[in-house]
């Protein structure tokens, strides 16, 4: 824990007991599709057994149940067939519990950088092996969390091309690399700048990883690499990323304060501006801008490739999948017990009361 007089601890103290009003974010996405998979009940069926493969800790299992991973998958990928939806549920569950291992306060490795680095190194090696990208044989890891990735890797090997698996690997490496940067900063008493935080958050969000599974979710053949590597397509991935993590940073603040962490956008903007209302307004404005940018980029991509009959439908599906990721993330974030908002509707906005810690 940071020293009582550190900038980090002072910021945490100044936020305790405060309230913030978040406007109705659904208005921003009202022209985008939103749905919940009709397979939701099926996604829930074998989830307890899958959770037991990840951990035997009753505390961790309780946190996982609270997160409602089947609902996450059903909101993010509502068009996915049941078996693919189950793999996507495993993916999001794995990403969350992996991150929780090194997250502040709740994580087993949160204060041990050396052990965390071993955990990251073993993870990256095994993920590469499971995706069929490693040259060497790899024994199953003793760590349950790392070993669980084989469920996801086997599905990727069966259904994804080499190029798709390489994209997944690249995004996974970005996620793991930025998790190290985030942990090093958190163990330091100083606060990152807003710019430093955003640069790191683009990786720790893991949205690049989830975006890399969008074609898998739809069951479509992959877009040609020249389309996937188009600068507008890469920018569209970035805007999706910003929308998702900015919404999460708004709605998860109560959880962050409960866990005594201030490494998220609202606290850092508040530290800079001194106004909680202004901080919320700036994040909402950033989400609105990202949605406008996404729409512009999507239109440009459809104009560029719309005459190519072999590409246009797959491109439309990928754009729609990214929109579902954003609207589904908002729907899940409002309802999940993980963030403590627990509201199915945000009509008129929602007021979040930050806890007063003892």
Automatic annotation (TrEMBL):
Q: Does the keyword Thylakoid apply?
A: no
Does the record's keyword annotation contain ATP-binding?
no
Molecular functions (GO terms): metal ion binding; terpene synthase activity
For this protein, the record's Gene3D superfamilies field holds:
Farnesyl Diphosphate Synthase (1.10.600.10)
Required co-factor?
Answer: Mg(2+)
The UniProt entry's sequence similarity note says:
Belongs to the terpene synthase family.
Kindly provide the name given to this protein in its UniProt entry. Terpene synthase
> What organism, scientifically named, is this protein from?
Corynespora cassiicola Philippines
């Amino acid at each position: 824990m940071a020293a009582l007089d550190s900038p980090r601890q002072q910021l945490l103290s100044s936020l305790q007991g405060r309230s913030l009003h978040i406007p109705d974010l659904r208005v921003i996405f009202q022209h985008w599709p939103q749905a919940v998979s009709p397979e939701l009940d099926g996604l829930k069926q074998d989830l307890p057994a899958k959770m037991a493969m990840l951990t035997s800790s009753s505390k961790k299992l309780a946190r996982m149940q609270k997160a409602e991973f089947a609902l996450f998958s059903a909101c993010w990928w509502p068009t996915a067939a049941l078996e693919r939806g189950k793999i996507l549920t495993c993916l999001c569950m794995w990403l969350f519990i992996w991150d929780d291992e090194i997250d502040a306060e709740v994580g087993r490795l949160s204060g041990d950088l050396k052990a965390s680095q071993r955990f990251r190194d073993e993870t990256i090696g095994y993920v590469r092996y499971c995706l069929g990208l490693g040259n060497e044989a790899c024994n199953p890891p003793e760590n349950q969390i790392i070993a669980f990735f084989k469920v996801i890797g086997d599905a990727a090997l069966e259904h994804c091309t080499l190029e798709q698996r390489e994209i997944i690997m690249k995004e996974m490496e970005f996620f793991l690399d930025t998790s190290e940067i985030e942990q090093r900063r958190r163990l330091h008493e100083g606060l990152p700048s807003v710019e430093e935080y955003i640069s790191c958050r683009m990786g720790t969000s893991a949205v690049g990883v989830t975006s890399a599974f969008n074609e898998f979710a739809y069951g479509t053949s992959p877009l040609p690499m020249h389309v996937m590597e188009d600068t507008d397509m890469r920018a569209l991935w970035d805007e999706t990323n910003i929308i998702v993590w900015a919404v999460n940073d708004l709605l998860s603040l109560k959880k962050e304060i409960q866990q005594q962490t201030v490494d998220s956008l609202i606290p850092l903007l508040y530290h800079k501006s001194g106004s909680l209302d202004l901080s919320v307004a700036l994040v909402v404005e950033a989400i609105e801008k990202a949605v406008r940018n996404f729409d512009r980029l999507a239109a440009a991509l459809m104009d560029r490739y719309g005459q190519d009959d072999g590409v246009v439908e797959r491109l439309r599906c990928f754009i729609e999948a990214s929109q579902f990721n954003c609207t589904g993330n908002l729907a899940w974030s409002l309802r999940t017990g993980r963030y403590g908002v627990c509201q199915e509707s945000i009509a008129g906005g929602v007021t979040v009361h930050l806890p007063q810690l003892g």
